[in-house]
Amino acid sequence: MIQHTIAPARQLLKDQWSRKGAARCADAWQWCRALLLSVLLLGASMNVVQAQDALRIGLVNTERILRESTAAKAAQQKLEQEFSRREKELQEAAARLKQLSERLERDASVLSDSDRQRRQREFADQDKDFQRKQREFREDLNQRRNEELAAVIERANKVIRQMAEQEKYDLILQEAVYASPRIDITDKVLRALNAAK
Asked: What are phi and psi for residue 91, nearest 5 degrees?
């Protein structure tokens, strides 16, 4: 069929080349290519529609799994317990720095230059130490959060694989720009994940 379409197109191009020049020939060739591409896309889309009826597809919203599953909530509580002491220490250090800053501003006018400079250096040193501790806290918290969430995702993926095999899914996606609610199996996965201990 493609040969029958290309042969008249070539003849048309030869005729136009000889009569009306290269510009019209190029337009005709682009028109033929567009026509051929349209025919091929139409055939491909028909095959996709037919194949779609045979596929069983599911979608899992990973954000909901990480927000609503009991495993994710337990991981969040574990992190809060693990880091609550350090967070409290940082809050106390921030309060001390604020008091020191207010005292320095209040007393600056009555202090000698050397005392004011000494207190400013002390404040700068304590502020640097506070910033370092705060940065280390955030890095440690992020690392532990990533470890805990990776464990939750690993458990969820195991549940999803089991569900796919049992319910004979051909494809389960965890991310999509758009998906119909009828293929969303997040609730099923949540129930299965919460039941698996």
From this structure: -65, -40
